[in-house]
Amino acid sequence: MAAALSFPCALDTATKQFHLLSSVLSGIIACRIVYKLTAFVSRLHFKGYGKLTDAQKVEWNNRGFSTFHALFVASASLYLLLLSGLFYEDSRDELVVNRTSTLSNSTLGISIGYFLSDLAMILFHFPALGGLEYVSIKSPWWMNILINFFPSLEPVYSFSNKQGNDKEKEKSS
């Protein structure tokens, strides 16, 4: 049964690129829908929502699509790990870290769409939506996305993390 549930990724490069782009756009559209749906449901079911300022409503709705994204990624990850057979030891000849499927690539694309939407929201509503704290917290996420597309950036990311950790150790001693 598990083998029937796996989604091997045997697509050519052009199809993979189109698939990734459509997944990213789907993620952006899903964020917009969930953002609006959060506002709609909140107005109907939470009396305090109407008393919030516009900036607080933006933050509340933003947390709605962040929560939706977290649940979506957790569900997809659990499925891929436990049910798909993608990560079974003897399921393929390639290394586990190199294994992909249509579902894992779709999840990556949708997540990139979420991160781009989140970045747009933060920049558009800056500093009202979290301010510099949001930017500093979410910067490693954006760097990870860049590393997925441009693996040559990995040494820069590793070096910057090492420098930051060294500075924190100096402050604590």
From TrEMBL:
Main location: membrane
Protein localization: Membrane
Annotated TM spans: 20-46, 67-88, 108-129
GO biological process annotation, one example: lipid homeostasis
Gene Ontology CC terms, in alphabetical order: endoplasmic reticulum; membrane
PROSITE patterns: TLC
Keywords: Membrane, Transmembrane, Transmembrane helix
Protein source organism: Populus alba x Populus x berolinensis
Residue ranges occupied by any TLC domain in the UniProt entry: 55-173
Name of the molecule in the record: TLC domain-containing protein 4-B isoform X3
UniProt topology in membrane: Multi-pass membrane protein
Keyword Lipoprotein appears in the UniProt entry: no
